[in-house]
Amino acid sequence: MMRQVNIAILGCGTVGTGVVRLLLENGDIIRDRIGCTLNLKYVADIDMDKDRGLTLPPGVMIPDAASAIADPTVDIVVETIGGEGIAKQLILDAIGKGKHVVTANKALLAKHGNAIIAAATENGVDLAYEASVGGCMPIIKTVRESLVGNRINAMIGILNGTCNYILSKITDEGVVFQAALAEAQAKGYAEADPTLDVEGQDAAHKLAILSALAFGMKINFDDVYIEGISRITPMDIEFAAQFGYRIKLLAITKFDGRAVEARVHPTMIPFDNMLSNVNGTLNAISVSADAVGDILLYGHGAGMMPTASAVVSDMADIARNLASDGAGRVPVMGFQPDKIRTIAVMPMDDIVTNYYFRFDAMDRPGVLATIAGILGKYAISLKFVHQKGRKTNGSVPVVMLTHHAREADVTRALSEISALDVVASTPMLIRIEDDDGQE
């Protein structure tokens, strides 16, 4: 007899509604693929009267999440509430009652994941979170399962569709940041308060999870360097293009065997880098590993149905485990729990990369020599110098690209240059990721 796996979905907002839709509309094909029936036992949401366009059997929609968790017949609890408050408590309650849990809550996992993972391990239940990073891109499954035979060296990705849409608009139409943001909000791609997205926090949540998953370390969100896109101008994007680069908000993690780099910031990447051609609201992530080389995953990182697809994938995996008594078959973070280590995150001051600088410098003799002299004082070697553009209030943009330099040296040099009376505004700094790694 085919096994029935009972599901309780907590929260019926955008993602929860999408999950319910998939179970109702594609339940037959899911059943035929996994050999189990995913039975929607409960949908718990305090807003019982909201029209979600769903037709549910009597008794399925309930207002009380706690009662759904308490039902001993529920096998899998799906948390789609979001946030770090009630969602955390409900997940821990479900784990404590022996329920397997699926969540899309990247902020919760980034900040409290270590405790939640420990609880799941202690209680012998599965915790699945594919939808927390990259929407429908199967990056979690890829790292935990497909790349199990590899040492992962680096992961570099576009992990926030809002920022990618805004940067694409600035690039394609030359509009300023605020105008691009307003359009993103009008189309529903950005929240009314877009801070988490445009200041890089959302991408950093995802990067903290990926770093832990890739390198077998504890989740360490507080050590991720975060910088948003609000200072990026059409001028910078135009200059970047002249040098053969596009600007993207990248989430970057690398491991050299001693320390992990974990940083989110605007980055210039060459035109021939596949990530440079990922536009609009799409996400992508490149993984570099010793056996497979480089692979790229690409797709919708958010949205009702792409995210719901990832949630249902997790539910199917757990259902298969239940059918074969295989709970815990794949460790939550890809490594056996006793092999998870504390690995140092490299301080941003120690990062070595190439840089783009833009100075608004007064159009006077000797200014370039003065700026170059300060950079030289801090062992920052220049690859290109470009002075071109319309004079504004007596200043002109001076653009410089460097060879490899250390972040701490760059910070000190720019601080000294900012204090010059011939520099009209705070210098612009954008880091560069070159595929060839040449200095």
Q: Please, could you describe this protein's structure?
A:
With 439 residues, the chain is of the alpha/beta class. Helices cover 36% and strands 25% of the residues. It is built from 13 helices and 17 strands. Strands 7, 8, 9, 10, 11, 12, 13, 14, 15, 16 and 17 form an 11-stranded mixed β-sheet that branches. A 6-stranded parallel β-sheet has the order 3-2-1-4-5-6, with helices on both faces. A hairpin with a 4-residue loop joins strand 9 and strand 10. It starts with a strand and ends in a 7-residue tail after the last strand.
Q: What's the average pLDDT? A: 94
Distance between the termini: 64 Å
Which runs of at least 5 residues are low in confidence (pLDDT < 50)?
A: none
Beta strand %: 15-25%
Shape: elongated
H-E string: EHEEHEHEHEHEHHHHEHEEEEHEHEEEHE
Radius of gyration: 24 Å
Tally of extended strands? Answer: 17
Oligomer state of the chains in this structure: single chain
Q: Helix proportion of residues, in percent?
A: 25-40%
Number of helices: 13
Q: What summary fits the major beta sheet? A: 11 strands, mixed
Structural class: alpha/beta
